[in-house]
Amino acid sequence: MDYIFLWIRYLILILELNIKTHSGTVFTSGLLSSAVPFSLAGDSIRYNGTNYALTEERIPYMRDKTNTEQFFILTLFAIAYELNKVCYVPGSAVNIDLAVGLPPGHFGKQYRSFEQYFMRNRYIKFEFNGKQYSIYMQSAVAYPQGYAAIIPDYAKIRDYPRAVILDIGGFSLDFLQLKDGKPDMAVCDSLELGLIRFYNDIRSSINSSEDILVEESDIDTIIQQKPTVFEEKIRRLVEREAEAYTDKIINALRERMIDLKSTHAIFVGGGSLLLEKYLRASKKIASPDVIKNINANAMGYEILLRKQLKAKGAN
Length: 315
Hints:
InterPro entries: ALP_N (IPR040607), ATPase_NBD (IPR043129), MreB-like_C (IPR049067). The protein has two domains: 4-144, ATPase, nucleotide binding domain (Nucleotidyltransferase, domain 5), CATH 3.30.420.40; 159-293, ATPase, nucleotide binding domain (Nucleotidyltransferase, domain 5, 2-Layer Sandwich). Helices cover 37% and strands 28% of the residues. The protein has ten helices and 14 strands. It has helices at residues 70-85, 104-119, 147-150, 154-157, 195-210, 216-223, 232-255, 270-274, 276-281, 296-311, and strands at 11-15, 18-20, 26-28, 31-34, 44-47, 50-54, 93-102, 123-128, 131-144, 162-168, 173-179, 182-191, 264-268, 287-290. A hairpin with a 2-residue loop joins strand 11 and strand 12.
C-alpha cells in the first residue's frame, strides 16, 4: 500500500455520547450550525453552504439517528481528524470504508437504513478549518455495539456457556446475551438507563436537598475520589446514588430474565469504567468483567470490517 498517505481503508466510528474512532480520537456528540463562519469555535466544517462547529452540549438522544443530518456531519469531523493523522493532502480524493455501531436492540430494524444514511452521497466535498477535503464513500457497514467490544478478547470469552454484554453508554444501557460465545439476537435490548439519567438523578437530588448546583464533571470527580470542594455529606450522597443506580441496572435486567448471579457479565463503555468499583462490589453480580479500553467497540469494528473486506477480496 504505497499510497497510504492519500488513502484510508478503515474509519471506525461510534455515535452516541461521544464519537470514537479506532485510532483513539474521542469527542462529544455536540454540534453548532451557522450560515456564517465561526470565528472562535475551534475546529469547524463547511458543508453544503452551512458552517458547523463542535460543542460540549450533546445532541439529544435519538433512537433513529437517520432522522437528522447531525450525525453525518459529526462523521465528517471524525473523517477529517483521521485524515490529518495520515498527512492528508487537502483536495486529494480519498476512499473511505466506514464501520459504524448500533445498539443490539435496534440493529435488526435499523442497520440497513443506517448504512444507507452514510451512502446517500458517495462523492463528498467539504471544508475543514478552511481546507478542502474530498472523499469517496466506498462502503458503510454497521455492527452491533457491545459485541464488537469483546472481539479483541474473544478467545477468553467464548468458552463461557452463557454470558451477557452490558454496554453502559451516555443515553442507554444495551445488553446482548451470548451462548457459547455466539450472540443471541433474540435476547437483546436497549434500555434508557444510560449515564445521563444517572447524572440527572444525582443533580436533582443534590439541588433539592442541599440547594447546590453540580456538574457532571463534579459527580465524576467524587466517584473517582479525586480532590473536591464538596462536603462529606455530598460525597456520601453521590456514593449512595451510584450504588442505587447499579442496583437499578441489575433489577432491570432481572425483570428481563437475565440474572447476573448466574451469568458471566461483561461490562463495556464509559459508564462501566466510571462505575467499575460498584459493579465489582455488588453481591448480585457473580462474575463481573470490565473491559477498560474505551475504544474497544471501535477496535472490534476494525477487526470485523477487515475480515469482511478480506472475504470480498479487498486488500
